[in-house]
Design brief:
The chain is α+β, with helices and mostly antiparallel strands and about 170 residues long. The chain has one domain. It contains five helices and five strands, in the order ααββααβββα. It has a five-stranded antiparallel β-sheet. Helix 2 packs parallel to helix 5.
Length: about 170
């Protein structure tokens, strides 16, 4: 019985230490580290390697890559994006795809996270083939999958962030 009690005590101590670390250091490290890993897994292409999370200085973290190989771009899962990329690829058929670019992006918006580490985040994954207009968001030229997640404890976010990103990354 004491072993079970010791385990529970140790578990609570570790959780409290993790909470304090998240509050002291903010969510910056957690989000950047996790997005970097997902970028490696989902966004790295033959033309975009070693992707690093970018922070806009306010509330948005992003990882972005570009696919320039038409055959690879056509392997995406999202049916709407696939149709759009097929249309784009047809424009480049005479050049065998040279010049084609599709943008892949994962973002994490922390606008609604308070200083105590609770609140709401919005995660989004997008495929944008609007290369003629500098990848400006346009419903006709972009597929987006997003999810909003509320949490009152930063430890809950730490434990759920990867699973949430996994869900939105199904778009790729």
């Amino acid at each position: 019985m004491s072993t079970e009690k010791d385990f529970e005590t140790l578990k609570k101590e570790q959780e409290q230490k993790a909470r304090e670390d998240l509050r002291e250091n903010g969510l910056d490290h957690l989000i950047s580290f996790t997005l970097d890993n997902f970028a490696y897994r989902y966004l790295e292409t033959s033309s975009t390697k070693n992707i690093v999370t970018q922070f806009n200085g306010k509330n948005l973290y992003t990882v972005t890559s570009f696919e320039e190989d038409p055959m690879s771009a056509l392997k995406i899962s999202d049916s709407n994006a696939k149709k759009g990329v097929i249309g784009l690829a047809k424009k480049f058929s005479s050049t065998k795809g040279v010049g084609l670019r599709v943008r892949y992006q994962i973002s994490c918006d922390i606008s609604d996270v308070s200083s105590n580490g609770s609140g709401s985040i919005v995660l989004a994954a997008s495929i944008n083939w609007n290369m003629d207009n500098d990848f400006i968001s346009d419903k006709e030229m972009e597929s987006v999958k997003s999810i909003s997640f509320e949490f009152s404890d930063p430890l809950v976010l730490r434990n759920k962030l990867a699973a949430l990103l996994e869900d939105i990354c199904l778009i790729f």
